[in-house]
Design goal:
Helix content: 10-25%
Pfam families: LptD_N (PF03968)
Structural class: mainly beta
Keywords: Cell outer membrane, Membrane, Signal
CATH superfamily: Lipopolysaccharide (LPS) transport protein A like domain
Organism: Sporomusa termitida
Low-confidence stretches: 1-24
CATH architecture: Sandwich
Largest sheet: 11 strands, antiparallel
CATH class: Mainly Beta
Number of helices: 1
Protein name: LPS-assembly protein LptD
Mean pLDDT: 83
InterPro entries: LptD, OstA-like_N
Number of domains: 1
Number of strands: 11
Shape: elongated
Distance between the termini: 60 Å
Order of helices and strands: HEEEEEEEEEEE
């Protein structure tokens, strides 16, 4: 029993050292109703009112797994991904934190002032600031409405590519 406790403490310390060493500028804030750290996978298992903040990005979900060393997030159940005035919703999300990319699936919506884009799925890159929407894309921009199979949108320039 004593060996198990020591192993747990050492594993937790190792994950802490790795997560602060690799991503010291991007230490995540993670909260949920139920939180469990799986030592074998090095991931937090989160259930209920999940809130994850990395830098100025906020992800909420019903359920999620988070790898603090790689800043990867797998979330399901009414997810939201926010940064500044950009607000994505969908059924699931996979965030590649170190590459600043997110894949959102299942009834994706992007909303910001004067614009709503909905689609089956979306890929967003925080570095390029481009969101690519695929499948049943519907765009409402002011009074103008249109549909497409795929749409690329730059959130910085507020323009379609």
């Amino acid at each position: 029993m004593k060996v198990n406790k020591i192993l747990i403490i050492l594993s937790t310390l190792l994950v802490f050292i790795l997560s602060t060493g690799i991503a010291s500028a991007a230490k995540p804030v993670i909260t949920a109703d139920h939180t469990y750290f799986d030592i074998k996978s090095g991931q937090y298992i989160l259930n209920g009112n999940v809130y994850i903040k990395v830098r100025n990005r906020i992800i909420t979900a019903s359920h999620a797994r988070v790898n603090p060393a790689t800043l990867e997030v797998w979330g399901t159940g009414g997810i939201t991904v926010q940064q500044r005035d950009i607000h994505f919703t969908g059924d699931s999300v996979y965030v590649y934190g170190s590459r600043s990319q997110a894949k959102i699936d299942g009834g994706v919506n992007l909303s910001r002032s004067g614009l709503i884009i909905s689609a089956d799925k979306a890929d967003f890159n925080w570095r390029s600031k481009v969101a690519v929407f695929d499948g049943n894309v519907r765009v409402t921009q002011g009074n103008r409405k249109w549909t497409a199979d795929s749409v690329s949108y730059n959130v910085d320039t507020d323009s379609f590519l």
